[in-house]
Design goal:
- By secondary structure, the protein is mainly alpha-helical.
- It is built from eight helices and no strands.
- It has one domain.
- The longest helix is centred in the last third of the chain and has 26 residues.
């Protein structure tokens, strides 16, 4: 688990600052966490989401600074933990169905070669369909996440054109998406009083 991992254009050798842009762009998650914490204004669900976004920041930073296999696993798992918690919070009384359904979808999509994050994009589509009052908000979040996922996916192929790669743009856009979906959940909770 301590093996060196070289997945991105920017990393050309082991070392703490081998991915400067990827490491610094992880700050987008910290900024999102602080903003959600502030927006939550004492709301426990909002504070939980802020803490989980903070976990995404820590995990992403650890991976891009250390470039080890254990950090890579932590990086992927942190975002999936946020997504599973979000599914439970947004489903409220149906969390017992929503969370296992999301996790099951994630496993199936990953086994079919779609990676770990395609299920998040599919989940945003489901939320846009189910929560009609917020469908445009979820559609915007979904479009941004689709763009972020595309930039994450093409990073290695873009090395010749963009030596720093495109992974850092994934961080910036994914940070915005985590903020937006958290804001949507807090707005919905505020409407229920």
């Amino acid at each position: 688990m301590t093996d060196y991992v070289d997945r991105y254009c920017e990393r050309v050798a082991p070392g703490l600052w081998g991915e400067l842009f990827n490491s610094l762009s992880s700050l987008a998650f910290l900024i999102a966490a602080v903003l959600v914490w502030w927006l939550a204004d004492g709301d426990r669900a909002g504070r939980l989401l802020a803490a989980l976004i903070g976990l995404v920041f820590v995990a992403s930073s650890a991976f891009h600074l250390l470039a080890t296999r254990w950090a890579a696993v932590g990086d992927s798992m942190a975002l999936l933990v946020f997504a599973a918690a979000y599914a439970g919070l947004v489903a409220r009384r149906w969390a017992w169905v929503a969370v296992p359904a999301f996790l099951g979808l994630t496993v199936v999509v990953a086994l079919l070669g779609g990676g770990l994050y395609l299920s998040v994009l599919l989940g945003l589509g489901v939320l846009a369909f189910v929560h009609r009052a917020y469908w445009t908000h979820y559609a915007v979040a979904g479009a941004l996440f689709a763009l972020a996922l595309a930039l994450r996916t093409i990073d290695r192929d873009a090395c010749d054109l963009v030596p720093a790669g495109t992974h850092f743009l994934w961080h910036l856009l994914a940070g915005v998406v985590l903020y937006l979906v958290s804001r949507i959940l807090l707005a919905r909770r505020g409407e229920r009083g």
